[in-house]
């Protein structure tokens, strides 16, 4: 905290002085790197104690479960669920922080193949939801393949999760725009109030309090935004309450089918 305050003071002082732009850029880059490393280490190291807590809770239930009353069993159940939620938060934080710490490998990526791979990986969830997925012919882009897989996986998970009672209809759209590839994931789900368009891309920001109906940590769309930012692209949403949503993202480079 002290380092951050000191840096803020330095930035304020340097803003009024000419010729310090490069020094400021370097200091900001160093601070960002340190924060990313700190986040990665903390999220990684938190997993071990969480496993210990889970193990002892399970052991307690196994050895003494028949001696505990209903209230005690309920307390153990609440504790296990709490640890599970914390574990998911840590794993999502780890995934988010890894995006800054892992070297990206830009290659020509066929987005049709990415979509097919993700659909196969998510086959069980897609079948359980009874979802119908249709797709335009998608472009090839210069991107990091693993991150494109992450991107599609989170966007499809989002479309499946926030569905209504209707059969989920998901359409992958490709648009041609000058010097960029634009792809949209359209669904017929519950939609989003426009006042929340910016907030949904903030990590761990959940719009729905009912975790039994809409599970998750609220990290998925933040991870998507981070991926797109790292590719110098843009991500945005078009939606309305009860009108479904279309999540668009653009990547630099002309579309090539």
Structure description:
The protein is α+β, with helices and mostly antiparallel strands and 257 residues long. It folds into two domains: 100 residues, Helix Hairpins (Orthogonal Bundle); 147 residues, Histidine kinase-like ATPase, C-terminal domain (Heat Shock Protein 90), CATH 3.30.565. Helices cover 53% and strands 18% of the residues. The protein is built from eight helices and seven strands; from the N terminus they run ααααβααββαββαββ. The chain has a five-stranded mixed sheet, covered by helices on one side. A two-stranded antiparallel sheet has the order 1-3. 23% of the residues are buried.
Keywords:
globular, Heat Shock Protein 90, 257 residues, disordered N terminus, 2 domains, Helix Hairpins, alpha+beta
Quick structural summary:
By secondary structure, the protein is an alpha+beta fold. Helix content is 53%, strand content 18%.
* Rg (C-alpha, Å): 22 Å
Number of helices: 8
Question: Level of helix content?
Answer: 40-55%
Mean pLDDT: 82
- Main sheet specs: 5 strands, mixed
């Amino acid at each position: 905290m002290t380092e951050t305050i000191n840096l803020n003071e330095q930035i304020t002082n340097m803003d009024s002085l000419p010729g310090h732009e490069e020094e400021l850029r370097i200091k900001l880059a160093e601070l960002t790197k340190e924060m990313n490393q700190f986040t990665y280490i903390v999220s990684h190291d938190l997993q071990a104690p969480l496993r210990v807590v889970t193990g002892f809770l399970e052991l307690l239930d196994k050895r003494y479960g028949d001696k505990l009353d209903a209230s005690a069993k309920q307390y153990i159940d609440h504790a296990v669920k709490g640890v599970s939620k914390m574990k998911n938060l840590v794993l999502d934080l780890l995934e988010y922080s890894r995006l800054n710490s892992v070297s990206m490998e830009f290659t020509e990526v066929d987005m049709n193949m990415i979509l097919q791979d993700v659909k196969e990986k998510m086959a069980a969830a897609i079948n359980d939801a009874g979802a119908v997925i249709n797709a335009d012919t998608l472009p090839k882009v210069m991107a990091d393949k693993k991150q494109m897989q992450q991107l599609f996986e989170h966007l499809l998970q989002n479309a499946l999760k926030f569905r209504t009672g209707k059969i989920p209809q998901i359409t992958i759209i490709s648009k041609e725009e000058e010097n960029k590839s634009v792809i949209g994931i359209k669904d017929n789900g519950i939609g989003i109030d426009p006042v929340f368009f910016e907030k949904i891309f903030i990590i761990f920001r959940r719009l729905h309090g009912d975790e039994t109906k809409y599970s998750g940590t609220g990290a998925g769309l933040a991870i998507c935004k981070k991926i797109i930012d790292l590719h110098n692209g843009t991500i945005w949403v078009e939606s309305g309450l009860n009108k479904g949503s279309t999540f668009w993202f653009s990547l630099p480079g002309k579309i090539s089918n």
